[in-house]
Amino acid sequence: MFRYTPASLQKLEQLYREADLIIRYEKGSFKSGYCILEDKKVVVINKYFDTESRINSLLDILSQVEIDSQKLSEKSIQLLEQVKEARVKN
Q1: Which domain does 17 fall in, by range?
Q2: H-assigned helices in the chain
Q3: Looking at the domain assignment, is residue 1 inside a domain?
Q4: What 3-state DSSP class applies to 56?
Q5: 22-26 and 42-46 as β-strands: parallel, antiparallel, unpaired?
Q6: Which CATH number fits the domain that encloses residue 64?
Q7: What's the distance, Cα to Cα, between the start and end of the chain in Å?
Q8: What's the pLDDT score for residue 90?
Q9: In whole angstroms, how large is the CA radius of gyration of the chain?
Q10: Considering the domain boundaries, does residue 37 fall inside one?
Q11: Position 21 in a domain
């Protein structure tokens, strides 16, 4: 089970950094609360979101982007597997 804490958010942000994806928290009129700029590997998330909404957005994005696991640390690989496993159960 995935916990919605600031520490979990930091772990997800670290996973994105290792995958060479840039996360920016900015204001905007995103229908889903986030926007993916695939050519630039940038993810823009609504800056007014609380921690839980930010985590949910990052988790949703993980299913839409390809992550090269060779770039990831062991902890990030474990987190990615945990996230994928949780998504399969839901």
Answers
A1: 6-89
A2: 6-18, 51-62, 74-89
A3: no
A4: helix
A5: parallel
A6: 3.30.2010
A7: 11
A8: 63
A9: 12
A10: yes
A11: yes
| Number of domains composing the chain | 1
Query: Which long-range CB contacts under 8 A does 46-50 form with residues at least 24 apart?
Result: 49/25
Structure tokens at 79: 């987190």
Residue that is written with structure tokens 């839901």 in the block: 90
CA dist list (Å): 9 to 29, 40, 51, 54, 59: 22, 22, 7, 8, 10
Q: What is the pLDDT of residues 46-70, one digit of tens each?
A: 998 999 999 999 999 888 888 888 9
Quick check: 36 and 52 in contact, CB under 8 A? no
The CA-based angle 21-27-28, given to 5 degrees, is: 90
Task: Give tens-digit pLDDT for 2-35.
Answer: 789 999 999 999 999 999 999 999 987 767 777 7
CA distances from 77 to 33, 62, 88 (A): 26, 13, 17
Is residue 47 included in any domain, yes or no?
A: yes
